[in-house]
Fold this protein.
Amino acid sequence: MKAAATLPPALSVQGLGKAYGERAVFHDLSFTLESGEVMAILGPSGSGKSTLLNCVAGLDSWDAGRVLLAGNDLGELSDDGRALLRRRTLGFVFQAFHILPHLNVAQNVALPLLLLGHGPDPARPGWTGDSRVLAMLGALGLDGLEARMPSQLSGGQLQRVAIARALIHRPPLLLADEPTGNLDTRTATRTMDLLLEQAARHGSAVLLVTHAESLAERATRVLRMD
Ligand SMILES: Nc1ncnc2c1ncn2[C@@H]1O[C@H](COP(=O)(O)OP(=O)(O)OP(=O)(O)O)[C@@H](O)[C@H]1O
Ligand SMILES: [Mg+2]
């Protein structure tokens, strides 16, 4: 077994640059995120925060530099290779949830496990979770909701389902794009507590876009985009 010190960083961004036509979104951006680190990205609307997250996830292209996910150079991979790497190494919490409406809560949370070929088939009609899924739901305060359909949940509950789904496969890196942006302040604080607590428990590094300085204060580092 390799010693922890020799593991590659969860994320390494090296001299990254992206422009739309003449207009640079970012230029020569470099940083490294080790396991357990939390980096907040602050910046006004249009400053490139979502674009950066999409590049890191291999969902968008860039013009210069390199992105390494858990030591794997994204630029050297085919589309299929990138998709596989994304499944293994990433959790993504989107502002708009992206919870699948025709699957129940447990099935939504278990999706990454299904895609990785781990465990029973959660797509079976009426499947309401195994011990991993139920433990994750419990940790996020969603006990007893495993059989509910997404349309029967509040906004805060939906966002916690999205967080559970992003962490169920213990990804080395969690990307979160304003994960509490459309929740009230109290719910947002509580949801952020749960996100950081669970990420820390699983040793995931976190790259977190937020507009709230109070949430950014809880990060180990802050990246300001302008
Ligand atoms: N396909 C595209 N073609 C041209 N410009 C684009 C395209 N997609 C995004 N942009 C521009 O790139 C810039 C960065 O967008 P991005 O979505 O990353 O901003 P953001 O920081 O996430 O903003 P917000 O806080 O509003 O979510 C914006 O000025 C946007 O208009
Ligand atoms: Mg955005």
